[in-house]
C-alpha cells in the first residue's frame, strides 16, 4: 500500500474476467461532505481506458451507482452514455495530468498495454507511465487510485489446486508479467 494513497487497490485480471469490489467506490473518505443518510455516495471518477474491454463495462456500472464518470481515452470516441468524454492522447511518462485530474476524487487506471505485441520493449516504459499519473494524483488531491494489473505479474502457474495468493512472492516469467509487476510497484511506491 502507498502511504499517500492509503486506499490504493490493485486488481489483477485473469482470462477476461474482472472482479471489481464496488464498495470501494463508496468509501467514507471519498464522500467527504455527503450525509450518511443518503443512499448513494457520489464520487467524481476518472477512468482511463474507458473505451477498452474493462472500461466499457465498468463505466455504466459506476454511472448507475450515481457516480460522475469522466471517460478518458486516447482518441476522441463516444463515451458510455452519461459519462463525460476526455481525450488525453497517448499515456506516457511525460503526459501532463494537471488539468485532467482537477476535481477528481478517484482515478481508475485501466489504460495499459494489454498485450506485448510485436515490440515488447514498449512494455519497459509501463512502470514510468503508471508512476506519472500516480504522482499527479497525489499533487491534485485525488483520494484513491485503483490500478488494474494482470495475473501474469504473479507468475504463470501454481501447484495443482492452489490459487495465487496476495501474500505470495510474485514470480513473473516473461517481459509482460515483469512489466506488470514493475508497474504495480511503481504505483505503490508513490509517496
Characteristics of this structure?
191 residues; alpha/beta; 21% helix; 16% strand; disordered N terminus
Report on the structure:
The structure is a single chain. With 191 residues, the chain is α/β, with parallel strands linked by helices. It has helices at 53-64, 126-140, 175-188; strands at residues 9-13, 44-48, 68-73, 84-87, 106-109, 144-150. The chain has a 6-stranded parallel sheet with strand order 1-6-5-2-3-4, with helices on both faces. Helix 2 links the parallel strand 5 (106-109) and strand 6. Helix 2 (126-140) packs parallel to helix 3. The longest helix is centred in the C-terminal third of the chain and has 15 residues, at 126-140. It is globular, with a radius of gyration of 16 Å. The protein starts with 8 loop residues before the first strand and ends with a helix. 34% of the residues are buried.
Amino acid at each position: 500500500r502507498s502511504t499517500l494513497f492509503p486506499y490504493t487497490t490493485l486488481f489483477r485480471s485473469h482470462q477476461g474476467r474482472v472482479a471489481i469490489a464496488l464498495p470501494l467506490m463508496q468509501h467514507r473518505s471519498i464522500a467527504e461532505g455527503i450525509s450518511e443518510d443518503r443512499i448513494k455516495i457520489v464520487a467524481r471518477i476518472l477512468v482511463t481506458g474507458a473505451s477498452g474491454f474493462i472500461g466499457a463495462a465498468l463505466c455504466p456500472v459506476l454511472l448507475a451507482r450515481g457516480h460522475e464518470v469522466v471517460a478518458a481515452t486516447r482518441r476522441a470516441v463516444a463515451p458510455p452514455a452519461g459519462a463525460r468524454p476526455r481525450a488525453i492522447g497517448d499515456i506516457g511518462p511525460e503526459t501532463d495530468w494537471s488539468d485532467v485530474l482537477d476535481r477528481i476524487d478517484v482515478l481508475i487506471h485501466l489504460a495499459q498495454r494489454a498485450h506485448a505485441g510485436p515490440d515488447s520493449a514498449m512494455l519497459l516504459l509501463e512502470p514510468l507511465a503508471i508512476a506519472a499519473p500516480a504522482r499527479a494524483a497525489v499533487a491534485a488531491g485525488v483520494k484513491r487510485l485503483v490500478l488494474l494489473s494482470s495475473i501474469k505479474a504473479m507468475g504463470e502457474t501454481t501447484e495443482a489446486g492452489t490459487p495465487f495468493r496476495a501474500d505470495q512472492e510474485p514470480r513473473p516469467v516473461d517481459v509482460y508479467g515483469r512489466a506488470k509487476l514493475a508497474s504495480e510497484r511503481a504505483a505503490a511506491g508513490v509517496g
